[in-house]
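Worked Example 4.2. Consider the chain below.
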Amino acid sequence: MMWSSVKSSPTTATATKNLGMTAPINVNGPEPKDLQLTTQLEEALRPHDVFESEEELHHRMDVLSRLNDLVKQWIKATSIDKSMPENIAATVGGKVYTFGSYRLGVHNKGADIDTLCVAPRHILRDDYFSSFLELLRSREEVSELRAVPDAFVPVIKFRFDGIDIDLTFARLALKEVDEAQDLSDPMLLKNLDQKCVRSLNGCRVTDEILRQVPNVENFRLTLRSVKLWAKKHGVYSNVLGFLGGVSWAMLTARVCQLYPNAAPSTLLQKFFLVYLKWQWPQPVLLKKPEDFGLGFPVWDPRFNVADRFHIMPIITPAYPQQNSTFNVTQSTLKVMQEEFRSSLAICEEINSGKCGWEKLFEPPNFFGKYRHFIVLEASSSCEEDQLQWEGLVESKVRHLISSLERENISLAHVWPKPYAGQSEVNQKTTCYWFVGLTVGEKVGGHLDLTVPIKNFTDIVMRSAIQINVWKTGMKIEAYYKKRKELKSYLPEAEHWKLKSERKSSVATAAANPAVLNSPNGGTLPGIKRSQEEPVPTPHPKKMNSGGSVDMEDGDFAKIAAATAGTEIPEPQKGIEAIVS
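Applying the procedure from the previous section yields the following structure tokens:
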């Protein structure tokens, strides 16, 4: 797509229906420079495999069509097994829907496809995890088959003709499910169990996000850029307390609502500005919350005490509304805010011609930011066990981060990408996560990490036993290490990362001593506490139009107004007051 060839008027806004909780900040269209920057942005994305070829896309569509046929065959056969006449069984239907990045149109090369099998009321989840699982097992084109029936959203994972598929299941309270079945009607949820509702909401939320953006193509290119940036900067992981794909999509959609006619290059810059200035924990909402009286729990901190402790709420736009970011901690929010700040500064450099978009997608040097680390080691006796063990340990790391925040630790920053063991013996049976630490402001205190580390290992082992995952040879250990002691854990090509960086705003050394204890590192006196520097307010250069960051168009004040538009009212005012 040649964005520079699009006709636009820098002074006249395109007629666009206002979407979102507040009025747009700026409705101007792009200038030629903004379109040129967008073309350059798209070119900068290409080396990172964020676009599929036509051939690859057609293969995905073929796989989905064959999977859809397979589901229909299974539903018909299961219906006949339940004594339904064959002529009626042939009409009950069934359908495979897509959601997530594929449905949004922003999937990468080689990405998996999130799918949902929707069946009529007489097909049960037990049928899905028995007879349909056996049908998949019998198919030549299916490999790496794994069922997870006890997950929060039960799922079957497999490869179908080379494409990774995550297939969830929901049964509707309908006699039949035809090809034209629309899942957007909230009354379809009536009388369904929670697992079915959660499964259906993957599709319902994805489709609602697309309905809430003023320009889908601009949204898609912006979201592709945001997702690549988040992965490169180590802030893409829902399970570790950062954000997952749907949360980044909702944040991007909100920026599109605030700048409905802007080009993707502008939207990406505004993205960093908006969320650097956002007044968390005020929630991000794409539309007015609705309650259809079906009795499902919805996010509402006025009545749900647990919701009041959510740090960075981003609320799904489909009923029943949920917070997609309940795993975020104070530390992960600080890390993301610092990445917003530094990336906004890079966007200013791009605007002034000092660098290209490639700089925005360069990973920061995580190891250079901190002097002190906790190394988490997860190991098993064989490769098959390690895959399961690694997933379980990863799902509990956020508990360690929360525990550390209750100690004299002002920041605990986990890098989402685990490192494999560095020897041939343990390369496939051991992995490591690294947690960078900034010691807090308490002067002369005695900081003991023994308790939070022991609590974390206890949580992991207890969970493994409860869900029957633990096997002989599975171990979880945690060590305190200084940066210079990490060399043995990293591949030789990354040893350069252990050199100290200049002061960063998330890990700046200060001068008051503390004492640090670790279960494996002993007592370590003389560690300097660290203190966050105040985040400087960016002062971008004046740029005309809705393009580039512009202090003089009142963005900061309007972002504050957009945040205030989602302020949580007093309990007695009712849910409508949230969005008044």
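The first strand starts at residue 95 and ends at 99. The radius of gyration is 25 Å. Compare this with Example 4.1 before moving on.
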